[in-house]
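quick one before i forget lol
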Amino acid sequence: MVVEAGPRDWTGGREPTAPIENGAFAQIVEGTAVLDLDHDLTAVLRALLAPWKEPPKAPRKKTSLVVARTRQARVSVVKANPALVRILRKVDRPRSATELADRLRLEPSALDALLHDLAEVGAVRFSIGS
């Protein structure tokens, strides 16, 4: 079992990627979910992995988590900012990157980077054609 903790760098420190190929459609992978929580569980993850006598208390703070599964059956849970949540909620069916950028009012290059990162954790996949 692999457990990871800490903030996720959604840019990966890489240069902006080229736009998604023309004709590619982004869609949510079955089983992907956005969890809206009243407490920030990510703040206590490290403490939960260390020895403790009483469970650590999570700070009361509205937090969204994306739960997804990669093709290798690895479960990913990442803390989501409002932009990621908006993307996941707008991809209600396969949509082109251009259509999503228009609907979300995002620059295509910013959307492209977010979509590729969501694909990396198994939340989004791309298909060609209808």
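fyi Helices lie at 45-49, 82-90, 97-104, 108-120.
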